[in-house]
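Quick bug: SUMF1/EgtB/PvdO family nonheme iron enzyme output formatted oddly.
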Amino acid sequence: MNLMEYIKENMVLISDGQELIRDFVDPIKWLSSNYKMSVPGTNKEKVVREELVTVQSFSLLKTPVTNELYNYVMEMDSDIQTKDYPVVNVSWVDAIKFCNILSEKLSLEKCYTLNSVSEKIVFDNSKNGFRLPTEAEWQYACRANTKGYRYDNIEEIAWFKENSDGKLCEVKRKKENNFGIFDTIGNVWEWCFDLYDEERYGNYRVFRGGSFASEERACGVTSRRKSFPEFRIDDLGFRIAKNNLEGIQ
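Here's what came back:
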């Protein structure tokens, strides 16, 4: 793999804009790998935050990080049969480490200073390396200047419980959104950088969008779940962001 060429071809520049972010209290904690994230929260109510957030222009990978990219960067053995599938069973901490290693391999500045205590990992937004998107960035990129819970008909854009045969699917097999981004809704949940609600859930981090195992109602622009940063499961992955295209043009 030519890593630089891969990144050039698969990152898209997202113009700046605004996104309405709503936070909900969700009483379920995702503690066990036996829990499928398709299970919707119960007694969920909108109480935490409703804010119009300004999103600055940034770059985002067109797809979730694939096995091909993850294994190449992390110098792990790769199976050609699964190279175009999203990498799963990766924790939030794994995703942070991946971003730093990828940045280093492309001679970019690392965005994260690691710490054995996850909530003490330091993010430096002035660096030009790779990072996880924020919740607001993820939602803005997913919505892509459309309105409503999804940017198009779910059968056209997403792999979910009713059409995935209960299996992970290759990326780019469904219709992209107006920004040229694939698989934000369905296929795999995606880690974001943000804490879910520090006061109520401590170091729990956010993931977004639904998965191949999710019911239709759980797959949408504003669908959000949470778990502890070391959590791994077979329908949870991530995609990478960057402040701009500096260093990869």
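Actually, after a second look the formatting is fine. Residues 210 and 219 are 4 Å apart (CA to CA). Closing.
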